[in-house]
Write a structure and sequence with these properties.
mainly alpha, three-stranded mixed β-sheet, 57% helix, binds zinc ion, DUF4157 domain-containing protein
């Protein structure tokens, strides 16, 4: 049995996810080069949370975490609990954005755990596909990816 509404809904969700992924890839392409490598002690944090290639990570300090310009994307993200204005860290592939004056080992461990999750998924596309799908039933606060990253905040610290 087909359900026209469900087909429409899932096509819309897939379209939003695809737009989110292309936004993320563009941000990484434009801004990864602005980042710095991890220090020796930060490399230890990244290794502790399971990152395979910590030397590939770049940290970009910003006044505001980058967010999609697309208002529809921004609004739907917000409705699932992804609030860009209140974010202090965001990992996109090997690029970690940290809002100025918010750096801590705890935050680094959290974002590095997202890098680990991305490495496990194999690409930004598959990771974001999985991550964004996980928000649909759960919302940000209950996403298994976020729960996992939170669980590693303490374990990752030196
Ligand atoms: Zn997180």
């Amino acid at each position: 049995m087909t359900n026209g509404f469900n087909d429409f809904f899932s096509a819309m969700i897939n379209n939003l996810i695809a737009r989110g992924i292309s936004w993320a890839k563009k941000v990484v392409e434009e801004q990864a080069k602005e980042g710095r490598l991890l220090s020796d002690s930060e490399l230890i944090v990244a290794k502790k949370v399971g990152v395979r290639y910590p030397e590939r990570i770049r940290i970009v300090f910003v006044d505001q975490i980058p967010h999609p310009e697309d208002p529809q994307l921004l609004e739907i993200a917000q409705s699932y609990g992804l609030s860009f204005p209140s974010m202090i860290g965001l990992a996109l592939g090997y690029t970690i954005f940290i809002r100025n004056n918010n750096f801590s080992e705890k935050l680094l461990a959290h974002e590095c755990r997202h890098v680990y999750q991305f490495e496990q998924a194999g690409s930004i596309e598959s990771y974001l596909q999985n991550y964004l799908q996980s928000l649909l039933p759960n919302g940000y606060a209950n996403s298994p990816y976020e729960k996992d990253a939170q669980a590693w905040e303490k374990k990752g610290q030196s």
